[in-house]
Design a protein that fits this description.
Low-confidence stretches: none
Distance between the termini: 107 Å
Strand order of the largest sheet: 2-1-5-4-3
Order of helices and strands: HHEEHEEEHHHH
Helix content: 40-55%
Radius of gyration: 43 Å
Number of strands: 5
Number of helices: 7
Number of domains: 2
CATH architecture of the largest domain: 2-Layer Sandwich
Mean pLDDT: 80
Shape: rod-shaped
CATH topology of the largest domain: Beta-Lactamase
Strand content: 15-25%
Length: about 260
């Protein structure tokens, strides 16, 4: 929502600028004469610049097709071949399709395109002026970073904020996968050590030594304590079995000697 509000404010400011440009040259659009075109060009040179670019196009009355427009003036100044290539780029965007045959007033647009120099521009205002001489269209575009770095005129997922967030999420996903694999390897080492303990092939290694994850250090210590307690219990059982076996030897020997004469 914040991004939409930002785009709306920027677009309104640019469209207001386009409206002022159209109003400033409108008095010179009443006729299509060399002097009128010269005045239009002089006005554009005063208000246009490297970042704010203005294009004035003209469509004669009853022109077929109705979308056929001709460049009249441009600011900053460019060559005729540049204008021809740029017109082809603008035609491909389809913006002229929005100008009806009646040359009704068109106030806004938000279309991105690449000019013949290969640089990206953003069309922010398109105003149609209908006069007795024909249909005039004043197009204002900008190459300012404050407009190009926003999501105006392009899908939402291509905005810098979304791409930056996507990179962060991707890095987080990679980090989580690394943690998962590291934890899995650590658990495999635990399983291998437990198997060696069970089969009595353990070489005095401990779970604490096999652990490489700090978060599992407490678990490893408890495992070692459990194994120590089990070994102690096993030693006690073995000792008691040996002691009992030794204690039974004497009465068994006495019984054997007593039974011997009976044989």
């Amino acid at each position: 929502m914040a991004d939409v509000d930002k785009q709306t404010l920027l677009l309104k400011a640019a469209q207001e600028q386009g409206r002022l440009v159209a109003e400033s040259i409108k008095p010179h659009l009443s006729e299509f004469t060399p002097s009128a075109i010269s005045k239009v060009a002089s006005v554009l040179l005063r208000i246009g610049g490297e970042e704010t670019k203005i294009k004035v196009l003209y469509r004669p009355i009853d022109t077929v097709p109705v979308q056929r427009f001709y460049y009249v003036a441009s600011a900053p100044k460019v060559s005729a071949s540049y204008l021809a290539r740029e017109q082809e780029e603008l035609v491909q965007t389809g913006i002229f399709d929005s100008v009806p045959a009646t040359c009704e007033r068109i106030d806004s647009t938000a279309e991105r395109y690449r000019n013949p120099n290969g640089k990206e521009e953003l069309l922010v205002s398109m105003r149609a002026v209908n006069t007795g001489a024909g249909c005039w269209v004043v197009i204002t575009s900008t190459a300012a970073d404050e407009f190009l770095e926003t999501g105006i005129g392009r899908p939402y997922w291509q905005t810098p904020e979304i791409r930056f967030a996507a990179i962060i999420y991707l890095l987080m996903a990679v980090f989580i996968v690394i943690l998962f694999l590291d934890g899995r390897r650590n658990l495999q080492r635990f399983a291998s050590l437990a198997r060696r303990i069970r089969t009595r092939r353990q070489d005095n290694q401990t779970f604490a030594e096999e652990n490489h994850i700090p978060e599992l250090s407490g678990v490893a210590v408890e495992f070692d304590r459990m194994v120590g307690a089990l070994r102690q219990s096993a030693e006690m059982i073995r000792y008691m079995a040996e002691d009992n076996a030794h204690a039974y030897k004497t009465p068994i020997a006495v019984i054997a000697q007593a039974v011997e004469p009976l044989k």
